[in-house]
Amino acid sequence: MRLAVVGKGGAGKSVISGTMARVLAQGGRPVLALDSDLLPGLSFSLGAGADPALPPLSEAAEKGEDGRWRLKKGIGPARAVQRYATPAPDGIRLLQIGKTPREGLEPIMGAVNAFHRVVHRLVEVKSFELWTMVGDLPAGPRHIAFDWAPYARTFVVVVQPSVQSALAGRRVARIARMRQGVQAVFVANRVTGSADVSHVERLVGERVVAAVPADDGVVEAERLGRAPIDHAPGSPAVAEVERLVTTLANL
């Protein structure tokens, strides 16, 4: 399975991507989590703790004589994951682009460039053929349009029951579907009942494959910086994400 989770900012992408990764890993799959969001989120929803001040991938990059960033000699995608992906619960490996510090993007530009090169070569690595990959992308369509998730075969578009969220989701899905062999599916998030689910389906113009309920357990987990699957493992939201994983496996 090669998944990328996308949608409008604040739709709940990190919670769903992190929980999916944990569910998949607990099911016995080797999982590589790929975090290209410059804002915090996936580390907490995975239960991996706070993000490092500088992303480990910074060590994988250098500037050439032409002033352009490149991977250091001897660092390919397999070695980059081996050396610079950090451990998360249930055996997950987490590869991060890095988070924007106060100084802006400049301190993490090496990691940004290294991440882009690594994800574009992951499909070449035979040792990853049986790995599940789950990506958490930044809000909006830009990163999809510029191919920051070339590994993805299914884009999971997270939509809240609002017009703004649905419009963003529709645009994201349309761009994702321009790629050959790629599918996009919609997930309604933070719904309070069947009326919310129907509302989302009307707004996006198609059925959703899952409807994750608004859940106080998830809210509390986010407040505490904990993974929902650890803080509220029996919650309705976690149960629906588990069902979503089963649905995606059968698509």
What's the alpha carbon Rg, rounded to whole Å?
A: 17 Å
**CATH architecture descriptor text:** 3-Layer(aba) Sandwich
Low-confidence stretches: none
How many helices in DSSP terms?
A: 10
Span of the ends, CA to CA: 10 Å
- Trace the largest sheet across and list its strands: 5-6-2-7-1-8-9-10
Shape: globular
What is the average of the pLDDT values?
95
CATH superfamily: P-loop containing nucleotide triphosphate hydrolases
- Compute the number of structural domains: 1
Q: How are helices and strands ordered from N to C?
A: EHEHEEHEEHEHEHEHEHHH
Overall SS class: alpha/beta
- Report the portion of residues in β strands: 15-25%
Describe the main β-sheet briefly: 8 strands, mixed
Give a quick rundown of the structure.
By secondary structure, the chain is α/β, with parallel strands linked by helices.
Description:
It is globular and about 60 Å long. Helix 1 (13-26) packs across helix 10. The protein has helices at 13-26, 42-46, 77-84, 109-119, 142-145, 163-176, 194-204, 216-224, 228-231, 236-249; strands spanning 2-7, 31-35, 61-63, 69-71, 86-87, 93-96, 132-136, 154-159, 183-191, 210-213. It has 10 helices and 10 strands. It has an 8-stranded mixed sheet with strand order 5-6-2-7-1-8-9-10, with helices on both faces. It has a two-stranded antiparallel ribbon with strand order 3-4. It has 251 residues and is an alpha/beta fold. The protein has a single domain (2-249), classed as P-loop containing nucleotide triphosphate hydrolases (Rossmann fold, 3-Layer(aba) Sandwich), CATH 3.40.50. The relative contact order is 0.19.
